[in-house]
Design brief:
This protein is 16% helix and 32% strand. By secondary structure, it is α+β, with helices and mostly antiparallel strands. The chain has one domain (6-128). The longest helix has 7 residues, at 68-74. The radius of gyration is 16 Å and the shape is elongated. The protein starts with 5 loop residues before the first strand and ends with a strand. Keywords: GTP-binding, Ligase, Manganese, Metal-binding, Nucleotide-binding, RNA repair. This is 3'-phosphate/5'-hydroxy nucleic acid ligase. It comes from Streptosporangium pseudovulgare.
Length: 131
Amino acid sequence: MYHHNYVAEERYDDVDVLVTRKGAIRAGSGDLGIIPGSMATGTYIVRGLGNAAAFNSASHGAGRRMSRNKAKRTFTLADLRAQTDGVECRKDTGVIDEIPAAYKDIRSVMAAQSDLVEVVARLRQLVCVKG
């Protein structure tokens, strides 16, 4: 499995390049990876399909749909508790910016990259540890 947020020397079309994967994972043919959603929306174990047009990459996760500051202004502790019901995690103002609604829908993100990875398994959060 590969991590995210790094630079790698790779070769595409007989050219040596530096690929910067910021918020992305390597998804070369057969590469295993992890693509998390939010604190409560599931995580996917994937196998790369080796799409050279995408530099053998896929997203690292759902990605934010709103800034941390906007999430803090928009949501309450009651919202956080409701959206993380059934998941053992922090439910305090220190993580309100990580509320699931501040992130894109992970199912849509996975559907949009079906040409980059195949889903091996979907995991459901039981515990989520945030700094």
